[in-house]
Each structure stands twice: as structure tokens, then as C-alpha cells.
């Protein structure tokens, strides 16, 4: 694919869904700015992506710190790079009953999943509006529609992401800019290890995890088509349809059964 000359920014691009999205952009000739916390992982990822003949700029940022979201935008502007597509992929969770989890870690997750996403969206959207061109993909989750015992803060942040994305989309309806929410279910990434969630029934259920490449393709296609949101995977679409007509208290109970530690479910 011939280099388009346009740039896409992908946060959390060194693994999982973010990496698979970056690969799709590269294959379609988009230059990339990729941001993550680990410089070595960024460089390894960049070398893989460059095989598609695109330019890849790496920027080390820790988006658990909301100030680094502002500095990411500033550094990209300083380099004279115009971002045509923003992908807010970086996100994390923490597993456990809320009264037992670490509040400082949860506040950092709120900063990553919510504050940094809002900052990057605000900064790059203002540039997109100036030229009336651009696309944004926000990683929400099926968790955005489901109360999440054992992951209460994570589910809460994703509910914010979906609501925020849909609200901004309405504000942009008279422009040529689109904003899309990608809503995957449980996916085979390092999310669960980082969340200390490997003992959850949701993870232990063999065959239950989606392929991140499939999720990325669903999100990429929806983004490029300018859709408002996409639920990735038939099983997740079915779960969304059922939960929409089920009382929230019952959905919360069902999610508790799905997400509690395996030894509690035996």
C-alpha cells in the first residue's frame, strides 16, 4: 500500500488490540505515532510496523499521569506532525472486591482510562475542527453497558468512555469529523495479567477470549466507515441484546458469577 502521508496516533500500541490496530493502519499506508511506557517495546513494535513502508514515530509516555497526555500532544505538535486519526487505546483495570482494592491504583486507572483519554480527545479534536477533518476511535468495552462486580472501577470508566464518545459524536454531527467507540468483550491480551485477574472465571473459561486481531479489525472497519460504535463478536452482541432487556440488578449478579475467582465458583 502506498504511503498516504497521513498520521494516526495509537496509544498503548505495543501489544494487544492497540498493536493489531497499528498494523492495520500501517498496511493501509498510514504513518504512525505510537505511544507507550516502555521504550524498548516501542522500538521493537516500530521496527515491525516499518516493514510496511511507513514512518513510525515512537514517544515514551506514561498516561497514568494525566500531565503526560498534555505533553504527548505538545511533543507531537512540536515535531510538526498533524494527526488525522486518534486512537485512544491505552487502558487498564484492577481486579478484586472494591473494599479490598488499592485506591491509589484505582485513581491512576481513572486517570489513564478517563482523564488522559479526555485530554487527548480535546487537544486533537480542536485541531481536527480547525481543518474539518479527522477520525477518533475510543476503546470502550461491553463493560460500558454492564455493572461489573470484581472490576467496579474499570466498568465505571468504560461507561464514561462510551457516554462521552456518544455525546461528542452528537456535537460533531454537522462536521466531517467522526468519533467511534469500540466495544470488545474479554480479549486474549495482557489486560488480565496487569489487572491481577488470571484467577477469574471469565479468564479461566477456555475459548472465551476473543482474538485481538479480530477485535481490531471490527474497530478499524467501524472507524473508517464513520460508525458511532461497534460491539465486537457475536457472543458479545448477544450479551448486549439480552442485558438491554434484563434488570440491572440481575445483570450485576450474572456478571458477578462470570467474574468472581474460579475457587469461589466451584
From TrEMBL:
Domain of life: Bacteria
Keywords for this protein: Oxidoreductase
Keyword match Oxidoreductase: yes
SUPFAM superfamilies the UniProt entry points to: NAD(P)-binding Rossmann-fold domains
Stored Pfam families: adh_short
Membership in a protein family: Belongs to the short-chain dehydrogenases/reductases (SDR) family.
Protein name: SDR family oxidoreductase
Organism: Dyadobacter arcticus
Amino acid at each position: 500500500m502506498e504511503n498516504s502521508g497521513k498520521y494516526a496516533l495509537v496509544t498503548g500500541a505495543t501489544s494487544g488490540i492497540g498493536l493489531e490496530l497499528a498494523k492495520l493502519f500501517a498496511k493501509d499506508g498510514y504513518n504512525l505515532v505510537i505511544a507507550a511506557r516502555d521504550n524498548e517495546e516501542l522500538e521493537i513494535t516500530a521496527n515491525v510496523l516499518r516493514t510496511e513502508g511507513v514512518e513510525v514515530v515512537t514517544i515514551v509516555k506514561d498516561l497514568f499521569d494525566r500531565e503526560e497526555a498534555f505533553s504527548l500532544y505538545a511533543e507531537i505538535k512540536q515535531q510538526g506532525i498533524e494527526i488525522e486519526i486518534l486512537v485512544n487505546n491505552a487502558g487498564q483495570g484492577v481486579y478484586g472486591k472494591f473494599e479490598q482494592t488499592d485506591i491509589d491504583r484505582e485513581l491512576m486507572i481513572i486517570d489513564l482510562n478517563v482523564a488522559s483519554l479526555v485530554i487527548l480527545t480535546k487537544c486533537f479534536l480542536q485541531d481536527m475542527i480547525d481543518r474539518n477533518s479527522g477520525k477518533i476511535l475510543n476503546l470502550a468495552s461491553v463493560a460500558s453497558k454492564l455493572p461489573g462486580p470484581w472490576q467496579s472501577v474499570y466498568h465505571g470508566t468504560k461507561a464514561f468512555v462510551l457516554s462521552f464518545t456518544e455525546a461528542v459524536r452528537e456535537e460533531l454531527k454537522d462536521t466531517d469529523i467522526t468519533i467511534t467507540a469500540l466495544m470488545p468483550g474479554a480479549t486474549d491480551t495482557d489486560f488480565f495479567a496487569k489487572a491481577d485477574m488470571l484467577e477469574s472465571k471469565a479468564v479461566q473459561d477456555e475459548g472465551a477470549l476473543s482474538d485481538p486481531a479480530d477485535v481490531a479489525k471490527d474497530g478499524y472497519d467501524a472507524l473508517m466507515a464513520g460508525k458511532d460504535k461497534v460491539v465486537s463478536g457475536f457472543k458479545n452482541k448477544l450479551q448486549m441484546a439480552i442485558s438491554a432487556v434484563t434488570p440491572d440488578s440481575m445483570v450485576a449478579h450474572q456478571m458477578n458469577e462470570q467474574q468472581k475467582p474460579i475457587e469461589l465458583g466451584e
